Amino acid sequence: MEQGVSVAGGEGAGRPPVRVMVVDDHPMWREAVARDLTEAGYEVVAETGEGRQALRVAAAVRPEVVVLDLRLPDLPGVEVARGLGASSAPPRVLVLSASAEEADVLEAVKAGASGYLVKSAGREEFLDAVRRTAEGDAVFTPGLAGLVLGEYRRLAHRQPGAQEEDQEDGPRLTERETEVLRMVAKGLSYRQIAERLVLSHRTVQNHVQNTLSKLQLHNRVELVRYAIEKGLADLD
């Protein structure tokens, strides 16, 4: 085992807990995060404080969620997120950073992060963010979601005719998939969408996964951008 890396053992009985990896160069903070996750029922499969180690260890332990700091000593967190996204079994990445700077948020999202939470968030807010990230939600500290959506809308407006493009020129979505996509673009969680459409949580997940597959996208953030480009998102 590499120095500075801690790897957990096997999964318990019953339904396997969500497998989480923690990447942060501050040992005490990293240990506190891992402890909170373990006490909440998650399986912390690895902890490390270096970016290159994180990529190597993630390939071996295959976490479902990676809680990632942006400030690492050897490799920027955005590069780690990009590397994780390019792996054969890409995990969902939740950035947990001290920075709420616009540039850091947008770079993290562009690198493939599913969510972004500042370290000042409370324990329950953090644990809820991990749960929602594992379920496929795009999770952001309050105030940052509007920033990300605003940036995607700005990029969409820079593409002439993007919103007028006929959807039939691309993959065909069913009426229900389009309805779910519109709600995803509004920032609703799977549970909220399920309640509004009177569907099960699993059915909503299946619709989102089918849409991701058809559009060859990787996460909900990319879905939001697609919806904006196609004029399917009401963000006003």
UniProtKB/TrEMBL annotation:
<dbReference type="Pfam" id="PF00196">
    <property type="entry name" value="GerE"/>
</dbReference>
<feature type="modified residue" description="4-aspartylphosphate">
    <location>
        <position position="69"/>
    </location>
</feature>
<dbReference type="InterPro" id="IPR039420">
    <property type="entry name" value="WalR-like"/>
</dbReference>
<dbReference type="InterPro" id="IPR001789">
    <property type="entry name" value="Sig_transdc_resp-reg_receiver"/>
</dbReference>
<dbReference type="InterPro" id="IPR000792">
    <property type="entry name" value="Tscrpt_reg_LuxR_C"/>
</dbReference>
<keyword id="KW-0597">Phosphoprotein</keyword>
<feature type="domain" description="Response regulatory">
    <location>
        <begin position="19"/>
        <end position="134"/>
    </location>
</feature>
<dbReference type="InterPro" id="IPR016032">
    <property type="entry name" value="Sig_transdc_resp-reg_C-effctor"/>
</dbReference>
<protein>
    <submittedName>
        <fullName>DNA-binding response regulator</fullName>
    </submittedName>
</protein>
<dbReference type="GO" id="GO:0003677">
    <property type="term" value="F:DNA binding"/>
</dbReference>
<keyword id="KW-0238">DNA-binding</keyword>
<feature type="domain" description="HTH luxR-type">
    <location>
        <begin position="166"/>
        <end position="231"/>
    </location>
</feature>
<dbReference type="InterPro" id="IPR011006">
    <property type="entry name" value="CheY-like_superfamily"/>
</dbReference>
<dbReference type="Pfam" id="PF00072">
    <property type="entry name" value="Response_reg"/>
</dbReference>
<dbReference type="InterPro" id="IPR058245">
    <property type="entry name" value="NreC/VraR/RcsB-like_REC"/>
</dbReference>
